[in-house]
């Protein structure tokens, strides 16, 4: 080759100190036999470049000359590669391999062996020379310029030329030679280096990637990084560079550098003999350095962690073989645009690894979004197919009647359940309010059908004697008189909630005339039933257990908070918490564990987007709901074959309860989706609150995502928060199906039901049941025009907002409201707005004030009490928030309870 090695230097000992050290070590450790054998097997490999190396002395002479080596290239551009391979090929021979630190993940040790440590020190010595002006000559530079694979015309030659070989090695491209793709689109990730893509692997929940049957840990690759646990379920990518490539690395996506350091490690190169692939059939062998992914986990490497729009991205330029120097061009806090330089190699480098978080997976998200966009209309049509009188699957069902299933035998489900119907229509009401006004006539049909069904005398009773608790009816609105698990007391509450949601829309859009004679009576009957019977036992939602069911009590509580407040099932809600999870049923006589998807359904059907993470109402983001989510879902991991081998923290199929034997006991779609929906709801709530709190109760849940997380509050900018898998965030449009479902209906979040006040047990609510009047709905004629969804009145610009606050006060004490808008005093305690006690009684301690506010204004506020002596008592945090509705309604009421 052109770059022929110089003769060994004439030092007193004959060798450079680092080589002499190796020679002495071999001698005094009795390794001469091993090394002689390594030289022999390497020589006998048939590789051309090993032919001149027959003895240990030949080899030591070679590595000694390498320390003063002026690299140069032949026309083929393989000389440098071959010299590196020759150095390592001897160390890769079986007789000396076990003197080095193991590379395999399971055998790794903290401390390097003497030989591995020597290899690192040798590489450093070699690098020192390559940093000197003697490492480059006119002749050696010309050899690179003459070697086509180096593409030297693409690079800027500095004024005065490259002063050292390492400067040449890290040469810069001329501007414009590497344009950055999609510079403004952060969803397009660009290659960080001129390199050959080797592959990508999914990172498991245990941080592992399996590459060619070997398990490597991303947490080890990132060597103590505070972000090491963030990449579970993400993607690991490996690419490699050759000696002739451009050796600078660039940001694959724009972001802020949150960590930048060099991790010391081994220097290593796997070299094996390979057959002649020139096609000349020369019967000679050549060096092959296969560069598989894996041993980069222990090599010297750079680590740059970028905080980007697609989550954290770890970029690891890997030092390989000689020198293995990675020089970082950035430091913590640097903001990089896509394509800006973040590091470069000195001679020897190079592999490149990228590690992405799970949430960066645009392709997966796009696939889900596409699926949902296609599937949503199909699913909606499927629902409508089961509603009379025009549902394709249910001929014979009366108008507005939801049929559980078209199946008429084994099982015969051709009936209409009050629960199923209410949950179905709550979804249709939310979808209609979100813009699909074509559903309004179905909703009107449902209301008319329920007005009739409420009056049908049945085995549970008549309208005012318990008949509303009857679980199911014939599809032609007749009573079902066969034996059944009755009563089921969730139905009236769910129906009230569905109709309240619709009535609010009607009122806000000028159709109060529909509410008064029609929907209000149906709602009032249902609320009367709940008030009267909430503390009586009944059958649970699975129609199996007779007792007090969490789902039933939770939805009853919600309905009463939404409607009126004479009774308060919240008093019972707390009894379902057993210290680690939510019991599905109490006051019952079954011997089951109590883990039951009943509890997930209870939380999602009482989800309030405006609520805090309240444990008392088991809001989705509450510590208790999350702890329960983990306990419950984990209880199904070992039960169903479909879940086998899926680690904790990863989604699985969810059944009703672990002891279920119905039809053999299987996962249920409704429960699997409820488990997912609860998490979407929690994310929605945290995103609104701007932080999440980990408590000792929810710690096991969070540890599945972030194994080292500790209790505390984490703002939305913190790594602990952003490491949570986030739903995709399309700009929500009211009718976008993908935003509805994937981003927890970002375009169709159900309305608040006041759960932010319901977490404190209202003092005005009785702990016992109450009797209320029942009345039949009289008028089921709906105004024409309602179905178009257009308001029947002009949009109001100012709304009279009534603030009702329940708080028992002592004589002389007064209640005020203060908030972030001028009308509420701009948080100035001197400008608070006084509430009046005109409606106050000891049974119902109501303080109230009405303030005119511009429609659409969102503001924060709080109540405070001023005491006789001048003392001021503020409500506890957090601030309350309210958005003045923009509709044709000119009044609205916000009901709060002191906290
Ligand atoms: C059985 C389910 O457990 C129950 O919740 C449902 O109401 C009925 N099937 C009818 O769909």
Automatic annotation (TrEMBL):
Residues 731-746 have a biased composition (Low complexity). It is an enzyme of class 3 (hydrolase). Pfam families: CBM_20 (PF00686), Glyco_hydro_15 (PF00723), PS_Dcarbxylase (PF02666). Keywords: Carbohydrate metabolism, Decarboxylase, Glycoprotein, Glycosidase, Hydrolase, Lyase, Polysaccharide degradation, Signal. It comes from Lasallia pustulata. It catalyses: Hydrolysis of terminal (1->4)-linked alpha-D-glucose residues successively from non-reducing ends of the chains with release of beta-D-glucose. Residues 716-726 have a biased composition (Polar residues). This is glucan 1,4-alpha-glucosidase. It comes from the Eukaryota. One of its GO terms (biological process) is polysaccharide catabolic process.
């Amino acid at each position: 080759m052109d770059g022929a090695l110089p003769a060994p230097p004439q030092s007193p000992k004959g060798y450079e100190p680092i080589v002499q050290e190796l020679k002495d070590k071999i001698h005094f450790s009795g390794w001469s036999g091993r090394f002689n054998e390594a030289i022999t097997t390497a020589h006998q490999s048939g590789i051309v470049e090993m032919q001149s190396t027959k003895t240990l002395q030949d080899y030591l002479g070679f590595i000694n000359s390498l320390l003063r080596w002026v690299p140069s290239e032949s026309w083929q551009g393989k000389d440098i590669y071959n010299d590196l391979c020759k150095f390592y090929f001897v160390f890769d021979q079986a007789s000396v391999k076990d003197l080095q630190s193991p590379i395999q993940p399971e055998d790794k040790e903290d401390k390097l062996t003497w030989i591995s440590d020597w290899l690192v020190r040798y590489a450093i010595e070699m690098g020192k020379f390559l940093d000197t002006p003697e490492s480059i000559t006119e002749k050696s530079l010309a050899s690179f310029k003459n070697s086509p694979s180096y593409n030297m015309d693409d690079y800027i030659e500095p004024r005065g030329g490259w002063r050292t070989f390492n400067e040449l090695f890290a040469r810069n491209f001329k501007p414009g030679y590497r344009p950055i793709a999609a510079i403004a689109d952060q969803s397009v990730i660009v290659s960080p280096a001129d390199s050959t893509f080797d592959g990508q692997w999914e990172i498991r929940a245990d941080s592992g990637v399996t590459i060619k049957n070997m398990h490597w840990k991303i947490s080890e690759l990132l060597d103590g990084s505070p972000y090491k646990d963030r990449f579970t379920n993400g993607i690991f990518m490996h690419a490699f560079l050759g000696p002739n490539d451009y050796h600078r690395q660039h940001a694959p996506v724009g972001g802020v550098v949150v960590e930048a350091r060099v991790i010391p490690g081994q220097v290593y190169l796997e070299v094996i003999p390979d057959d002649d692939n020139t096609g000349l059939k020369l019967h000679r062998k050549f060096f092959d350095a296969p560069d598989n992914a894996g041993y980069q986990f222990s090599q010297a490497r750079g680590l740059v962690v970028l905080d980007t729009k697609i989550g954290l991205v770890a970029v690891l330029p890997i030092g390989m073989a000689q020198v293995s120097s990675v020089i970082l061009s950035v430091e913590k806090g640097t903001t990089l645009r896509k394509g800006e330089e973040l590091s470069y190699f000195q001679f020897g480098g190079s592999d490149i690894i990228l590690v992405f978080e799970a949430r960066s997976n645009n392709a997966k998200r796009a696939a889900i979004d596409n699926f949902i966009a296609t599937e949503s209309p199909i699913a909606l049509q499927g629902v409508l197919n089961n509603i009379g009188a025009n549902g394709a699957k249910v001929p014979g069902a009366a108008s507005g009647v939801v049929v559980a299933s078209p199946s008429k035998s084994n099982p015969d489900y051709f009936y209409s359940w009050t629960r199923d119907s209410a949950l179905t229509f709550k979804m249709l009401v939310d979808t209609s309010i979100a813009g699909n006004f074509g559903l309004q006539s179905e909703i009107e049909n449902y209301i008319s059908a329920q007005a009739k069904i409420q009056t049908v005398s049945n085995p549970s009773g008549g309208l005012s004697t318990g008949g509303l608790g009857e679980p199911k009816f014939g599809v032609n609105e007749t009573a079902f008189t066969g034996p059944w698990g009755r009563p089921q007391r969730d139905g009236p509450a769910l129906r009230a909630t569905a109709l309240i949601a619709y009535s609010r829309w009607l009122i806000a859009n000028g159709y109060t005339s529909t509410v008064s004679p029609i929907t209000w009576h149906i709602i009032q009957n249902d609320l009367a039933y709940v008030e009267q019977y909430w503390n009586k036992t009944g059958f649970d939602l699975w129609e199996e257990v007779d007792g007090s069911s969490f789902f039933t009590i939770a939805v009853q509580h919600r309905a009463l908070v939404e409607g009126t407040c004479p009774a308060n099932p919240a008093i019972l809600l707390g009894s379902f918490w057993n210290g680690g999870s939510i019991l599905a049923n109490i006051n019952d006589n079954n011997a089951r564990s109590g883990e039951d998807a009943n509890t997930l359904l209870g939380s999602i059907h009482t989800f309030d987007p405006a609520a805090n993470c309240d444990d008392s109402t088991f809001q989705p983001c509450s510590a208790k709901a999350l702890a329960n989510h983990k306990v419950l879902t984990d209880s199904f991991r070992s039960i169903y074959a479909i879940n086998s081998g899926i680690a904790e923290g990863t989604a699985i199929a969810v059944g009703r309860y672990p002891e279920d034997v119905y039809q053999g006991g299987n996962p249920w779609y409704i429960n699997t989706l409820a488990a997912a929906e609860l998490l979407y709801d929690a994310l929605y709530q945290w995103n609104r609150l701007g932080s999440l709190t980990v408590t000792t109760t929810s710690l096991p849940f969070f540890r599945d995502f972030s194994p080292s997380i500790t209790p505390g509050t984490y703002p939305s900018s913190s790594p602990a928060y952003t490491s949570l898998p986030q739903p995709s965030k399309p700009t929500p449009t009211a009718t976008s199906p993908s935003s509805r479902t994937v981003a927890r209906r970002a375009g169709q979040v159900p309305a608040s039901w006041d759960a932010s006040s319901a977490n404190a047990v209202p003092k005005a609510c009785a702990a016992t049941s109450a009797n209320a009047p029942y009345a039949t709905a009289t008028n089921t004629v709906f105004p024409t025009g309602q179905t178009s969804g257009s308001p029947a009145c002009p949009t109001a610009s100012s709304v009279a907002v009534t603030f009702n606050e329940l708080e028992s006060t002592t004589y002389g004490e007064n209640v005020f409201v203060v908030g972030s808008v001028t009308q509420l005093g701009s948080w100035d305690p001197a400008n608070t707005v006084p509430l009046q006690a005109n409606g106050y009684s000891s049974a119902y301690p109501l303080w109230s004030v009405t303030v005119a506010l511009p429609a659409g204004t969102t503001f924060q506020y709080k109540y405070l009490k001023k005491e006789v002596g001048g003392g001021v008592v503020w409500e506890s945090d957090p601030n309350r928030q309210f958005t003045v509705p923009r509709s044709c309604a000119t009044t609205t009421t916000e009901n709060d309870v002191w906290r």
